[in-house]
UniProtKB/TrEMBL annotation:
Alphabetical keyword list: Repeat, RNA-binding
Any GO MF annotation of the entry: mRNA binding
Domain of life of the source: Eukaryota
Any Pfam family: KH_1
CDD domains tied to this protein: KH-I_Vigilin_rpt2, KH-I_Vigilin_rpt3, KH-I_Vigilin_rpt4, KH-I_Vigilin_rpt5, KH-I_Vigilin_rpt6
Gene: LOC102034767
Family annotation (SMART domains): KH (SM00322)
InterPro entries registered for this protein in UniProt: KH_dom, KH_dom_type_1, KH_dom_type_1_sf
Protein name (record): Vigilin
Domain K Homology: 1-67, 71-139, 144-212, 213-279, 284-352
Length: 358
């Protein structure tokens, strides 16, 4: 991912630091690549490339460096991390309004940065106003809010968070409740809801709805059937994915199952359709494996595949002959049960003729 951050051109050199040391240090610390326009380039945009968290951290640090250089007043306010969402407001609307109204720059560390300080930069009088308003929100929320803790399966946390944290913002906007999710590297399943007591019930309903709005399920299907389920050029699968584009269907090689992930209702429908397909294929299809010394494989295949293609067409089967580099003797035949038996018989006869002809 990449993002840009604009700071006054004259502050760029402070981000670079002496001999570029500050910049190197910042890139290392945040695991990002930071591109600063050349001195002769009038642009004030700094480009950051990296992971979402890395970009957030780097952006935060760059804005802090710029704030320090700002000749205007700078003030830091220590606010417990759990109250930051109330100050930022849903989708950062509250802090944006506050910045516009007071002409003060307010820097709230992103959720992934473990800092509690909110940094204000601006004209002294306006800055004092902004600080006072943030303090007021903080005091009010500390007094009025309470918490409840609920258990939500770890695998469902990402659905409560939503893409780019959107679902959390949506709950905050609808109910005024902040939902705290344990970090991904923690095994905890406890989700904390923080808000005004009368709003917690509604927020809890939202959390459960989001947690269950997506689901992961699997269908048992022998791995050799997978390609028949997918169909020629993916045709069979396309019928399902066109109806339900939000369902992600995954086939893992060598595993006798198919995994589905997506909106719960869609997954249920797709699962039913795949189960019907699997049942039908199991009734209609069979496979056989035969051992033929790999040195005879190319004779079985015939010139330009003439021999093997004739068998495939005649018996309506697919035949997998391992490539030379595998040095494997195992040939696999799949398809219509009767065709499989006939193809097996013919291939074994051909092979034994070759052996006796040696």
């Amino acid at each position: 991912a990449s993002a840009t951050v604009a700071i006054p051109k004259e502050h760029h050199r402070f981000v670079i630091g002496k001999n570029g040391e500050k910049l190197q240090d910042l890139e290392l610390k945040t695991a990002t690549k930071i591109q600063i326009p050349r001195p002769d380039d009038p642009s004030n945009q700094i480009k950051i490339t990296g992971t979402k968290e890395g970009i957030e951290k780097a952006r935060h640090e760059i804005l802090l460096i710029s704030a320090e250089q700002d000749k205007r007043a700078v003030e830091r306010l220590d606010v417990e991390k759990v109250y930051h969402p109330f100050i930022a407001g849903p989708y950062n609307k509250l802090v944006s309004e506050l910045m516009q109204e007071t002409g003060t720059r307010i820097n709230i560390p992103p959720p992934s940065v473990n800092k509690t300080e909110i940094v204000f930069t601006g004209e002294k009088e306006q800055l004092a106003q902004a600080v006072a308003r943030v303090k007021k929100i903080y005091e009010e929320k500390k007094k009025k809010t309470t918490t409840i803790a609920v258990e939500v399966k770890k695998s469902q946390h990402k659905y409560v968070i939503g893409p780019k944290g959107n679902s959390l913002q949506e709950i905050l906007e609808k109910t005024g409740v902040s939902v705290e999710i344990p970090p991904t590297d923690s095994s905890s399943e406890t989700v904390i809801l923080r808000g005004e007591p009368e709003k917690l019930g509604q927020a809890l309903t939202e959390v459960y709805a989001k947690a269950n709005s997506f689901t992961v399920s699997s269908v048992s299907a022998p791995s050799w059937l997978h390609r028949f389920i997918i169909g020629k050029k993916g045709q069979n699968l396309a019928k399902i994915t066109q109806q339900m584009p939000k369902v992600h269907i995954e086939f893992t090689e060598g595993e006798d199952k198919i995994t589905l992930e997506g909106p719960t209702e869609d997954v249920n429908v797709a699962q039913e359709q795949i189960e019907v397909m699997v049942k039908d294929l199991i009734n209609r299809m069979d496979y056989a494996e035969i051992n033929v010394d790999h040195k005879f494989h190319r004779h079985l295949i015939g010139k330009n595949g003439a021999n093997i293609n004739r068998i495939k067409d005649l018996y309506k089967v697919s035949v997998r002959i391992p490539p030379d580099n595998e040095k494997s003797n195992l040939i696999r035949i799949e398809g219509d049960p009767q065709g499989v038996q006939q193809a097996k018989k013919e291939l074994l006869e051909l092979a034994s003729r070759m052996v006796s002809g040696m």
